[in-house]
Each structure stands twice: as structure tokens, then as C-alpha cells.
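Deliverable D5.2: sample structural annotation.
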Amino acid sequence: MLWILLLAVLFTFYRPLNWRDAIRHLGFMAALAFLFSAVGNRGLIKNSIRYARFVVPPTVAGAALEIDLHIDQPLVAQLFWDRGHGISEADSLRQKYEPHDALQTLRFPLPVGPMKALRFDPLDEDSQLVVRGIRIVDTAERTLAVLPLNSLQPDRQISECSVADDLLTIKPTEGSNDPILSFVPTALSKINDASRVGNTR
């Protein structure tokens, strides 16, 4: 395109005397156009080389359980898993609820390998929890599985665990000190399947 523009300017102001003179000027204009294009596109060439050498960083394998929820006060939740050795503090993770009433997401990285049970201790004192979504994601935050809200069932010190209007409301019994929920077998199977996919990516 630059060469065409230069030729247009040349032949607007210059008339060659013969065909040798015309060829000589055409060669000169071509060389000039090449130099202009090399200088003008040096940044593009440099960036092209840099991006050609770019290596996409590898994605770390793994999966995590995410729970979208509302809670009326800042507390601590804990997730326990059983990989065949029972429930213990060593096989658990704690996450803090943020001190606000807006929707927030708790994220629990899951262990590698199938789990025989998955327990969720949502509250450590009298409170109320409203869950809006439960899902399994990989480390790139891509959704591997979406779990229904009735995936959680009460085990101990839970007075209400009910789904209505696409919300799961959880209330502990009065004076409780360790309310416990667990994932139903169908949900656990879905979590294990999704985790296996996440751990192979």
C-alpha cells in the first residue's frame, strides 16, 4: 500500500523520459517503500516474535467445592472429608464468612482421590445460613458440576434444612455448638466424578 502511494506521488510530479528512467525510479521507490515499511512495522515485528515465543503456563490440576451463600454474621465454616480413614481435623479445611450480608462464595480445594464421605459444618454458634448455589470448579474456575441444593442433609444440631424459591435455608438448633451437615450419596458421587476430571486437567 505504501509503495502504491509513493508511486502515485512520483508520477503526479514526475514524467520519465524513457523506459530505463522509469524502471530506475520504480526500483528506487520500491526500495524506499521497503525501508519505510520496515521502520514503521518494527514494533509489530518485535511483538510478533515475542508472542510467537510465548508459552502458555500449565494449569495446575485440582478441583474445589464452591458454595454461594448469605449469612447474618461473620463466622467460620469447616469442610471434612473421609478417604477411608474416617473424619478428622487433619482432613479438613476452614473458611471464614465475610462480615457482610451480601452474597459471598466459600471455596474449598478438594483432596486428590475419591472420598467416602463429605461433611460440612456451616456454623459454630446460633445463626442462619442461606445457600444459593453449590458447584465443583477446576483451578481455572471452570464449572465441572452444579449440585442441587438438596445435596446437603442435616446430621446433627440442625433444626431446619429446607429448599424453597431456589434457596437452601439452614438453621441450627437453639444453643447448638457443633451443627453438622453431610452431602447425600448421589451428590458425593457427582463430586468424586467431577474431581477426577479436575485432577486430570
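Annotation notes: DSSP finds four helices and eleven strands in the chain. Residues 56-60 have pLDDT under 50 and may be disordered.
The annotation will be released with the project's public dataset once the embargo ends.
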